[in-house]
Amino acid sequence: MNERCSMRSARWREGPVPHRFAVLGLVALTAACGGDGGDSLTVGAWGGAYTRACKLAYYEPFIAETGIVIRDAQYNGGLAEVRAQVDVGRIHWDVVPMEIADAVRGCDEGLLEPLDPSMWAPGADGTPPEEDFFPGTLTECGVGAEFYATVIAYNRENIAGPEPRTMQDFFDLETFPGRRGMRRKPMGNMEFALMADGVPPAEVYELLDTPEGIERAFRKLDTIKDEIVWWEAGAQPPQLLADGEVTMTTAYNGRIFNAQVLEDQPFEIIWDGQLLDFGQMVIVAGTPNLEAALEFLAFATTPRSMARVSANISYSPTRYSGLPLVGTHAEAGVDMLPHMPTSPENLERALRNDWEWWVNHTDEMNERFSSWLAR
After folding, report:
1. Is 0.70 topped by the overall pTM?
2. Is 125:255 a contact under the CB 8 Å cutoff?
3. CATH number given to 3-146+279-325
4. pLDDT tens digits for 142-198?
5. Other CB atoms closer than 10 Å to residue 319's CB: what's the count?
6. What CATH topology corresponds to 148-278+341-374?
7. Are 295 and 20 in contact (CB under 8 A)?
8. How do the domains of the chain map onto residue ranges?
9. I need a surface site. Which of 142, 185, 308, 351 has the fewest CB within 10 A?
């Protein structure tokens, strides 16, 4: 065993980490210092402000703690890239942050490693992990990472007259002329279209369960289709607003917040009709770095790591004991709680993403959406 690995072994035995971390760390140490795993992990990354927050919150502390290097690879969602790696048996990514619907479908397809919820750290107050995570954020192959929201955002400098305030305003091209930015996926767009058409948030998925509801959503999207600029990566909406390419855009709330706070952009968030969601972290099935990947997930999903993410981007912890640890922005000193998608004021007309509906309808809706785009 080389000197660095020997020092790491001693640190895991003596360092102030929970016992289960020490166990995982020693297993990972075997792989990293003479096993098949190696000294690095590749983590899929959404890019931009979110990846920067993750680097500060747990990439860099994890590297300092373990000596295991983290490399990130651009990931824009979906299962296609993971499926391709697993199908040919050449795994390039070890850990991936996924939208919950993709994580559940990937698990069902055998693309992801099953995870034991008991392996995660207890809450900051000692609560067992299964009780500390918000209900539903732990699944067979995924561990909850953060709550985030897809919202509507605009640039104040590009709005003449009264500013938009509602989901209906996003679809109102007469009062608020100009192009609209939307993610090139049906999820979120279908829900926004129905809410803009007068459907209360509580009735959206009940209506989407009917052919009439789906047709109604597409008819509403038809009203702005010619003015839509499609985006695929989360870093694009702030750039579209900054460049004046769109009047309004759907966006992830944390990306807009960081542009406001760190870049002094004159952006505003419309919380009306926000689509509240949570992301999970998963491990790609067949990774040769399984033990180190487990160690990384255990480190990244502690309440303190989650709070460090919240100190760098306005995404909320998925653990009860993580919320009291959220304070001010690490650089700007802004109180973060009012900017969280889970704050009471921002939840007034929120729609919680029904990921189970999307697990059951993703293929069908992707096909319908592609056909609609091609028309």
Report:
1. yes
2. no
3. 3.40.190.10
4. 999 999 999 999 999 999 889 999 999 999 999 999 999 999 999 999 999 999 999
5. 29
6. D-Maltodextrin-Binding Protein; domain 2 (3.40.190)
7. no
8. 3-146+279-325, 148-278+341-374
9. 185
